[in-house]
TrEMBL record:
Gene that encodes the chain: LOC106613472
Name of this chain's protein: Ankyrin repeat domain-containing protein 24
Family annotation (SMART domains): ANK (SM00248)
Database matches in PANTHER family: ANKYCORBIN
Gene3D superfamilies with a match to the protein in the record: Ankyrin repeat-containing domain (1.25.40.20)
Keyword Transport annotated: no
Segments annotated as ANK repeats: 52-84, 85-117, 118-150, 151-183, 184-216
UniProt keyword list: ANK repeat, Coiled coil, Repeat
């Protein structure tokens, strides 16, 4: 009798079948017994991708089908396999805010900092979705907080851009670097200002974000804040002590904010 792995290998070379489709449907409908029966009796490969690039295994992670996931894991699939978009089950669980499936996958000793085709880790995906529970789980499994993706973006930068206040505060409290800049020189604070989230700006400043950093075009957080035109953000930035350049000259940060904000205000009124 052929082993399950041998059957998986054989099935991977075959076309997508009706049985494969039934396996996907069993996961979608959260029917673990049916999933088990299809894998054993039909010799199906749960990591086999359909025409849309998804598999029963990846669907478990995306939909939070923990019982179905347990069945599939018991049959020893390749847990590192990615779907058609380059995401692993770990990335999909974080992306879709499925902390129980995420934890179960990490218990299989998957690399917590594995990257997708864009260079993003599960923590990046948790930041985008704003899933604090997944972020906490990843931290428990020693995820790197400051990993940069292909564009130099960290989870904190993404969280700030998406105005994920609690998530940003969590990362900062655990030592995430608030002053890492992406490939365009943008920091988490700059993007929080641009996103018009005073609460996120406040959390970042409290966590040590430097408002005097400049992006690739020489713009500071003041410029981004002026674009949003938020008076509270203006006040938060103004309350920061003035910085000095290496030559001892004071950076005219506050006045530059007033200039940007005043110019924007006049432009909107006219």
């Amino acid at each position: 009798m052929k082993s399950l792995k041998a059957k998986f290998k054989k099935n991977e070379s075959q076309d997508w079948s009706k049985s494969d489709e039934r396996l996907l449907q069993a996961v979608e409908q959260n029917e673990p017994d049916k999933v088990a029966a299809l894998i054993v009796k039909k010799g199906l490969c749960p990591t086999k991708l359909d025409m849309e690039g998804k598999s029963a295994f990846h669907l478990c992670a995306s939909r939070g089908r923990l019982d179905c996931l347990e069945v599939i894991l018991a049959h020893g699939p390749d847990i590192n396999v990615t779907d058609g978009t380059g995401f692993s089950a770990l990335h999909l669980a974080a992306k879709n805010c499925q902390p129980e499936c995420l934890k179960r996958l990490l218990q299989e000793r998957l690399s917590v900092d594995s990257t997708d085709s864009f260079g993003r880790t599960a923590l990046h995906h948790a930041a985008v979705s704003g899933c604090l529970s997944c972020t906490e789980t990843l931290w428990d499994f020693k995820a790197s907080l400051d990993t940069q993706d292909g564009d130099g973006v960290t989870a904190l930068i993404l969280g700030a851009q998406m105005s994920r206040v609690e998530l940003c505060a969590f990362l900062l409290d655990r030592g995430a670097n608030p002053n890492i800049q992406d490939s365009q020189g943008r920091s988490a604070l700059m993007l929080a200002c641009e996103s018009d989230s005073a609460e996120t700006v406040e959390a970042l400043l409290r966590g040590g974000a430097n408002p005097h950093l400049a992006d690739a075009l020489g713009h500071h957080a003041a410029h981004y804040g002026a674009t949003a035109g938020n008076q509270r953000i203006a006040q938060l930035l103004q309350n920061r002590a003035p910085a000095t350049e290496g030559n001892g000259e004071e950076v005219t940060y506050h006045s530059s904010f007033h200039f940007h904000f005043h110019s924007l205000h006049i432009h909107v009124k006219t």
